[in-house]
Amino acid sequence: MASPIRPDAELNGPSESDIARAKQNVVGRLLQRGIVAFEEAPAEQLVELLEAVELFEVTAAARGCDSFTNALDSSQPEDRSCQLPEPGADETLQTYTARIRTRTDAMRGE
């Protein structure tokens, strides 16, 4: 019996167009935060970067950091420890994600 939710042809997972739309969404959400990432990057790496950024933001907010004055593009942040690290020109997504996680752990006292 066919699924009432989607046709049998789509039971194997998301289509390429679904993945492309999801990647565009993630890239757009990163861009809103001042992080330029390319859609050609693997979807998993883009999602891991976004998750790291979002956890950093939650951790910074819990610490009382102001996301506006400590934004990545702020030339004079109120508290540099509350600011996302600047991505390096030749840095991979995985390396940048790891640096964000390290900064988040430092804020948490880990």
Q: What can you tell me about this protein's structure?
A:
The protein has helices at residues 16-32, 43-62, 93-108. By secondary structure, it is mainly α. Helix 2 packs parallel to helix 3. The relative contact order is 0.12. The mean pLDDT is 84. Helices cover 48% and strands 0% of the residues.
Keywords:
110 residues; mainly alpha; 0% strand
Question: Could you give a quick summary of the protein structure above?
Answer:
This protein has helices spanning 16-32, 43-62, 93-108. The chain is mainly alpha-helical and 110 residues long.
Report the helical percentage: 40-55%
Name the shape in a single word. Answer: elongated
- On the 0-100 scale, what is the average pLDDT? 84
Largest sheet: none
Rg from Cα: 17 Å
Going by helix content, strand content and strand pairing, the class is mainly alpha
* H/E series: HHH
Q: Helix segment count?
A: 3
What distance lies between the first and last C-alpha atoms, to the nearest angstrom?
52 Å
Low-confidence spans: none
List the helices and strands and how they pair.
Layout lengths: L15 H17 L10 H20 L30 H16 L2
Helix pairs in contact: 1-2, 2-3
